[in-house]
Amino acid sequence: MGTWGTGISSNDIYEDINYEFFELYNDGMEVIDITKKLIAENEELIDSYEDQNNFWITIAKCQWECKALDEEIYQKVKELIESDKDIELWKELEASKSDLTKRKKNLNHFLTKISEDKKSARKRKKKVSRNAIFEKGACLIFKLSDGDYCGAFVLESEKNTELGLNLIVTTDIKKTDKPTLKDFEKAKVLLALTQQMLTEYVPKEKINWYYAQHFKKTETEFEIIGQLKVDKYYYSSKDYQSFSNWDNLVLFQDSFYSDYENNKCNVNVKLSSLRKKTKWL
User: Fold this and answer.
1) Strands 191-195, 201-205: pairing kind
2) What's phi and psi for 139, nearest 5 deg?
3) For 5-23, b where at least 16 C-beta lie within 10 A, e where not — what string?
């Protein structure tokens, strides 16, 4: 049970179910059909002694937001709160007395809230389609805190999607003068040692997805010096499942080069290997 607080929304189940519920709601699906779908797809959570309470509480909250709280689900949540079933679970998980008091207060407040009809149903949001900030194949340069230029390369660029993601790889380019396309053609991927186990570190490429809607908040000044062809296709649903903030491109390299001898890895991955499809004989 991934929980970080005593509030009804302070757990992984709430985050996941609430997100899925309103994704479907905004797509136009009716509340009763959304509920049936989520129940059918989450039997494991429902059967879990530790997780079922958070599941039903989340469903009740989502339905109430839409002014469509099902009476059976309301009674189920009402019973688990009034009977202290959820509090007993927290006791078994060795929650502190302070947290038990806060949890009980939050649950009672939640029950009082959903026991009254909401004045109006939550409005369905229209999904916004976005294009990624940079075109696929763009060679980006920006300055580090020491004044040197470094380079990052755009492997993928989403068009007309909700998030408008760019997939960007950090290269080993670091120069006092402005890099050129030739530098990108012979560049290698920057790798850093990443903790895998408690005592085991493995080299991992610095490749992340970046959100279009967050770009306007970045303090980094990017410059495009040209384009290189990318034959491969990458998908945010399956490739490099790591998402980051735009300014982290600079922060990572500043940190990397500040302790270069300890951070560098003896693994050579050419940028060209990520751009070009493998040729089979």
Assistant:
1) antiparallel
2) -100, 110
3) ebebeebebbebbbebbbe
For residue 124, the Cα-to-chain-centroid distance in whole angstroms is 22
Q: Burial of 25 by CB count in 10 Å (0-12 exposed, 13-18 middle, 19+ buried)?
A: buried
Query: CA 73, CA 115: separation in Å to the nearest integer?
Result: 12
Chain position carrying tokens 């991927």:
189
Q: What is the pLDDT of residues 137-160, one digit of tens each?
A: 999 999 999 999 999 999 999 999
Domain ranges of the chain: 12-114, 138-275
Tell me the two tokens of residue 276: 């070009």
Q: Which of 1, 2, 36 is nearest to 21 (CA)?
A: 36
d(CA 89, CA 79): 14
Residue 5 Cα distances to 104, 112, 196, 215, angstroms: 12, 20, 27, 30
Q: CA 110, 59, 24 angle in degrees (round to 5)?
A: 130
Pairing of strands 207-210, 243-244: parallel
* Residue type at position 72: E
* Residue 166 in tokens: 């760019």
Residue 203 clears pLDDT 90, i.e. is over it: no
Q: What is the mean pLDDT of the chain?
A: 90
Task: Give the global pTM.
Answer: 0.58
Contact 157, 132 (CB under 8 A): yes
Crossing angle of helices 31-41 and 52-65, in 10° steps, is 170
Q: Cα separation of 1 and 10, whole Å?
A: 11
Tell me how far apart the alpha carbons of residues 230 and 228 are, in angstroms, rounded to a whole number: 7
Write down the residue that tokens 């940190």 correspond to: 255
